[in-house]
Design a protein that fits this description.
About 40% of the residues lie in helices and about 15% in strands. By secondary structure, the chain is α/β, with parallel strands linked by helices. α2 (about 55-75) runs parallel beside α3, α3 (about 85-100) crosses α4 and α7 (about 200-210) crosses α12 (about 320-330).
Length: about 375
């Protein structure tokens, strides 16, 4: 039995990396035993990547927990999810990794966030040196998509592998007919962090073009607001285009409310250009519920949805292109149903939680042979 020490955040707050670490921990395995040290730097989504004095104490206690966890578990493998390209999380990683990597025979980096090497050129010389000590020469680097995996060679990882995310199948048994029952106006669903990087301003501009084209539709934007200032920008843009009766913000949806949002939608839209985007879990969730997808050619997104035949992929920050793809789906219910079925099949073939856990166990077991 191989002992592995998992270091990372689990919900709350709810976001892709935290959810995937929780799904990994909840699996049952024959060849590995997982031990866990929880990161608790962010209590809500708006704290992610932001400095707070409280986090200094959390940093020291997390460092101590990793050291204690290493000796209690006898784990020789350290599993760690590196930061995206933001300075505060990078400094956090540098302290934790330099303080503990030496205690483990093997280091596994799982890149749920993309873009880490992009910060390197802007670092001062001392931080560049510490960055190299912390991040380079991992024994195994795991990426969620092939297009984001080039960071592995940049960081001189000994082995690089691609393991797509996987989730429990909560869309089983639901059909496009069930989704549309009782609703004559097609629903476009957005789900995620309500911030500029997720493309919400682009979506609002696209909705304005759809309205001018005479289309009837409604938009549900589920999630938490990134900041009050951005919320104000969105509200002004919605009012400017007369979309207040079209776009709704139900907040963060959990449990059945979350799954019902997918069931009641006709199209899923994620026009992201988010700085640390890899391959968002919400796209996999949309696939599981047979939703056609409109999304962007950004980081790992095309890898994740491009082969399904159920997604339109447009360039980021292009409202006209986004509106054209949405219009095609709004005008053609048969097209929505066909693309939704293709996405469902792609999900079943690639993104189930069982496949994810099998691949993760195999990768962790094979580390001694790499």
């Amino acid at each position: 039995m191989e002992n592995v020490l998992i270091v990372g955040q689990t919900p709350p707050p709810v976001y892709g990396q935290a959810v995937m670490i929780q799904e990994l921990l909840e699996g049952e395995y024959e060849g590995i035993q997982l031990h866990y040290v929880r990161m608790e730097f962010s209590r809500s989504i708006d704290e992610v990547g932001i400095f707070h004095l409280r986090k200094l104490l959390v940093l020291l206690t997390t460092l101590a927990k990793i050291i204690v966890g290493r000796w209690k578990s006898h784990a020789e493998i350290l599993y760690y999810p590196p930061a995206g390209p933001k300075i505060i999380p990078v400094i956090r990683d540098i302290v934790l990794l330099i303080g503990t990597r030496w205690m483990f025979r093997y280091t596994v980096f799982h890149f749920h966030a993309a873009g880490l090497p992009e910060i390197y050129p802007s670092l001062p010389p001392v931080l560049k040196l510490l960055y190299n000590v912390a991040y380079r020469k991992a024994d195994l680097a795991i990426f969620t998509t092939k297009s984001t995996s080039s960071a592995g060679s940049e960081l001189e990882a000994k082995t690089v592998t691609v393991i797509p995310n996987g989730i429990p199948d909560r869309g089983e048994g639901h059909t496009p007919h069930d989704r549309r029952a009782g609703s004559e106006v097609p629903c476009i669903l957005f789900m995620g962090n309500l911030c500029e990087g997720k493309g919400l301003l682009t979506l609002i501009e696209a909705c304005s073009l759809l309205k001018k084209a005479g289309l009837s539709f409604r938009v549900v934007c589920a999630g938490t607001h990134d900041s009050d200032s951005f919320r104000g920008v969105m509200e002004e843009l919605i009012e400017k285009h007369g979309l207040a009766n079209v776009i709704s913000f139900p907040g963060v949806l959990r449990g059945e409310d979350n799954w019902n949002a997918f069931k009641n939608a006709d199209i899923f839209c994620l026009p992201s250009h988010y700085y640390a985007e890899s391959f968002p879990l919400v796209l996999i969730e949309a696939m599981s519920f047979q939703l056609p997808i409109v999304t962007t050619n950004w980081r790992g997104i095309p890898d994740g949805v491009g082969g399904s035949g159920g997604a339109f992929v447009v360039e980021p920050k292009e409202p006209k292109l986004l509106a054209e793809s949405l219009e095609s789906l709004l005008r053609d219910s048969d097209l929505r149903a066909t693309m939704g079925r293709k996405n469902r099949a792609w999900f079943c073939d690639h993104y189930t939680i069982e496949k994810y856990r099998e691949r993760m166990e195999r990768a962790l077991l094979e580390i001694r042979t790499l």
